[in-house]
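So, can you check this record?

>
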Amino acid sequence: MALHHITCVVVIVFLGSVWSMPTPHACQLQRNLIETTHRLLETMGGHFPLQCVEENVKISFPATVIESNKQQGTGAAKAVYEVLKSIDALFDNDSIPDQWDATKLDDFQNIVYRQIEESKCIMSKTEESNDDFPARKAAVRIFFDKLSAVLKEKVYSFCAWEIVRKELQYALRSILDDKSNLLWSKN
């Protein structure tokens, strides 16, 4: 009987220590979720419509906000988090085109929200004295302000949303193409 109690205590202590161990991907953005988000955004509406070519404007994503070295990784991760929050805010709108695949749009919004919820801890990370996150955040805000302006200027038209969708695809592709260890992969 005493051996049984000791065994139970050892198992509980062991499991407690295993469960409390940090995981290698704790508090990191997940590459597979960003890839899925990009794919859903790309396929929910198909190719950029010919009817929108004349209205098209280019709003360059400030790719420098995600560039990092070992000292700037936290600022870059926070910038990606801000991008996700800004995407979520942009799509929190009732005027999204009916022409888009509703299921893919819903999945897209849910995955963006999931990424935000699962990576909130990124915002509590701190960098050393060379923290440039405020500048990165400002650049992200300017980019999304321009996207919002296009939507408002074009009265949330189908083509305005297509321009936004196209530019967000570039933004997500830039994040995915970044060669730093910004995103966690299951590999």
User: Anything to note?
Assistant: Residues 84 and 128 are 24 Å apart (CA to CA). The chain is about 60% helix and 0% strand.
